[in-house]
TrEMBL record:
One of its GO terms (molecular function) is thioredoxin-disulfide reductase (NADPH) activity. Residues 6-282 form the FAD/NAD(P)-binding domain. It holds the Pfam family Pyr_redox_2. This is Thioredoxin reductase. The keyword Hydrolase does not apply. It catalyses: [thioredoxin]-dithiol + NADP(+) = [thioredoxin]-disulfide + NADPH + H(+). It comes from Actinomadura namibiensis.
Amino acid sequence: MEQAAYDVVIVGGGAAGLSAALVLGRARRRVAVVDSGEPRNAPAAHMQGFLSRDGMSPAALLEVGRAEVAGYGVHLVEGRVEQVERDGSGFAVRLVGGPALEARRVLVATGLRDELPDLPGLRERWGKDLLHCPYCHGHEVADRPLGVLGTGPGSVHHALLLRQWSDDVVFFPHTLEVSESDRARILARGVRIVDGPVKRLVVEDDRLRGVELADGRVVEREAVFAFPRMVPRDGMLEGLGCARNEDGWPVTDATGRTSVPGLWAVGNAADPRAQVITAAGQGSAAAIALNHDLLEEEVERAVSAVG
Ligand SMILES: Cc1cc2nc3c(=O)[nH]c(=O)nc-3n(C[C@H](O)[C@H](O)[C@H](O)COP(=O)(O)OP(=O)(O)OC[C@H]3O[C@@H](n4cnc5c(N)ncnc54)[C@H](O)[C@@H]3O)c2cc1C
């Protein structure tokens, strides 16, 4: 594959992928961004914590980003990548029902999938008044009656943390077993505990009203926080043999370089903790590393041609 159509194909056009595209486009690289249009924070009306963009809508940020990268000649492709395959020293990036794009390098910036417990009301209220990140949403629900739903070991910390935003926080362990020492810590922090399995979120007039337990009790709440199970959206990498850590996330270096030569992964696809601004920063750092990697190859090729 002497002359692939693209220097870099970026899979995923969220904050991470578009930031990488901006830097690579400005470096005069041939770049395509393939995006299926489902950014993780789409259910939220506002994006918080991005310096100079605090409160902007997630959709508006991406619209501005797409216009910026298009201005540097980056190709924006609407579609879903189903498979990334080795093709000589580069890759073939296969789109569902579409062509395969040839790429010298691939950057995966596909984000992650949030898997919520299967309880009525959770999926519908996600990003509205069922929330997970206090740094993203805590300020907006400060001083209101809040709940924390037990979904895993991290939920105890979640309850302790939430107390910082409201003095009316109820922890619902649901089916989670909570040790006596954790109970003591939660109570000492001023958080109430309501035991028993949760049946559903009570929603009226498009607003969360409370949490209903299996025994029929309803505890009035205006917002509930719950940690989802986070899963990288990287099924297209199956077959490339990318090394993963014990939790199933691609192993990368500080620039997003994976164990597969020529393959990078950044943003929530590799780091579940990345906020929008962090994901954007990771995309930018990966772009510079990718450009250096391409440069090395070009210099080697030029030296061989001369010699
Ligand atoms: C409800 C909610 C609210 C949030 N609020 C905030 C907030 O206020 N502030 C904040 O900093 N963070 C917030 N976050 C976190 C934020 O969503 C992430 O930090 C951010 O989206 C990560 O960016 P990313 O580019 O890695 O992934 P994403 O933004 O998820 O972008 C990934 C893109 O890849 C595309 N894609 C996926 N698979 C494929 C494929 N196979 N082929 C082609 N394209 C594909 C997707 O369609 C998507 O457009 C929130 C998260 C949630 C769930």
